[in-house]
Amino acid sequence: MVASGALDRHPRLKVMVAEGGCSWIPALVDRMTEAYRQHEMFVQPKLKREIKEIVYSQVYTSFQHDKTALPIMQATGYDKVMWGCDYPHLEGTFPHTQRILHELFEDAPDDVRHKVTIGNFDELFGVKTPERLAA
């Protein structure tokens, strides 16, 4: 969707890569950017925006157990990240969800914690979480 120019042509289009983790996104963006630079003369269509800008603004990802997700998010600026428990699937966090949440988010600033657990969901799906749940 990036290389075809679809996301570039439709900047309000949002894409969700669910249950695939998120730590790989910045590395893939770096690789795609380098490949585009090396082969730009052959690439059609030409992109109007940088690959990083396209992906970082339009592609959302989710994770469950990934302890590298938040540090990579904070280090790279890629912040379209959502946490999910994947209940009731066996690979989800249940019945250890509370412990895992504490482990993953114990050092995260409040704004990051909110963005990853509620804010990006609201943004992606155009909903407003009730204040009682948002606190």
Automatic annotation (TrEMBL):
Q: Which domain of life is it from?
A: Eukaryota
| Name of this protein | Amidohydrolase-related domain-containing protein
- What's one Pfam family the UniProt record gives for this protein? Amidohydro_2
Show where the Amidohydrolase-related domain sits. Answer: 2-126
- Presence of keyword Lyase: yes
Instruction: Answer whether the UniProt record assigns the keyword Oxidoreductase to this protein.
Output: no
Which PANTHER family does UniProt cross-reference here? Answer: 2-AMINO-3-CARBOXYLMUCONATE-6-SEMIALDEHYDE DECARBOXYLASE, ISO-OROTATE DECARBOXYLASE (EUROFUNG)
Q: Which InterPro entries did the record assign?
A: ACMSD (IPR032465), Amidohydro-rel (IPR006680), Metal_Hydrolase (IPR032466)
Record's keyword terms, sorted: Decarboxylase, Lyase
Gene Ontology terms, MF aspect: carboxy-lyase activity; hydrolase activity
Which source organism does the UniProt entry give?
Ricinus communis (Castor bean)
Q: Spell out the family assignment given in the record's similarity comment.
A: Belongs to the metallo-dependent hydrolases superfamily.
Classification lineage: Eukaryota, Viridiplantae, Streptophyta, Embryophyta, Tracheophyta
